[in-house]
């Protein structure tokens, strides 16, 4: 169980992370915060590229940062978008979340009180993952 206080910290971290977004092409700054098994929070923002296909979403930036610090289990992912309605992670990010957090809680927040609160299982049923290779 993730406490309400921890969820609030994650939301605040995700909103703050969007301030570092590098999104000159889409002008759509996104922030993400992930909670790992140790209780640490890692953040990320979207980082775009003039070669558009290389744009990296905020969720993946945060997860790769956590993985690079040695974390291997994701408990929750919170994404903030500057919109009136919440935005669920894209398909690529769902796949990357699945690698480290197949049962992670996934919460999307935005600039209105509307929010999505779901799980990776619900967002990516029947996922291909590490166990598929055994
Ligand atoms: N983006 C994210 O960072 N996360 C999402 O959940 C949705 C999309 C980014 C990718 C790109 O930089 C911009 O938003 C527009 O798609």
Number of helices: 4
Strand content: 15-25%
* Oligomeric state of the chains present here: single chain
C-alpha geometry: globular
SSE series: HEEHEHEEH
Are there runs of 5+ residues with pLDDT below 50, and where? none
Can you tell me the CATH class? Alpha Beta
Mean pLDDT across the residues is 98
Secondary structure layout plus pairing:
Blueprint: H1 4-17, E1 31-36, E2 41-45, H2 58-68, E3 74-80, H3 91-100, E4 105-109, E5 115-119, H4 120-123
Parallel strand pairs: 3-4
Antiparallel strand pairs: 1-2, 1-3, 4-5
Main attributes of the structure:
134 residues, alpha+beta, Cytidine Deaminase, domain 2, five-stranded mixed beta sheet, 5 strands, 21% strand, binds tetrahydrodeoxyuridine
Characterization of this structure:
The protein is an alpha+beta fold and 134 residues long. The protein has a single domain (4-133), classed as Cytidine Deaminase, domain 2. The chain is 29% helix and 21% strand. The protein has 4 helices and 5 strands; from the N terminus they run αββαβαββα. A 5-stranded mixed sheet has the order 2-1-3-4-5. It is globular and about 40 Å long. The site of tetrahydrodeoxyuridine has 15 residues, from helix 2.
Summarize the structure.
The chain has 134 residues and is of the alpha+beta class.
């Amino acid at each position: 169980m993730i406490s309400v206080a921890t969820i609030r910290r994650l939301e605040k971290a995700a909103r703050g992370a969007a301030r570092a977004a590098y999104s000159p092409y889409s002008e759509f700054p996104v922030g993400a915060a992930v909670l790992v098994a140790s209780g640490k929070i890692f953040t990320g923002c979207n980082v775009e590229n003039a070669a558009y296909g290389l744009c990296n979403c905020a969720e993946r930036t945060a997860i790769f940062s956590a993985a690079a610090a040695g974390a291997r289990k994701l408990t929750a992912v919170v994404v903030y978008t500057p919109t009136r309605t919440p935005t669920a992670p894209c398909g690529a990010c769902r796949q990357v979340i699945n690698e480290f957090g197949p049962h992670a809680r996934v919460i999307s927040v935005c600039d209105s009180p509307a929010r999505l609160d779901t799980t990776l299982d619900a967002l990516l049923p029947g996922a291909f993952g590490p166990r598929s290779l055994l």
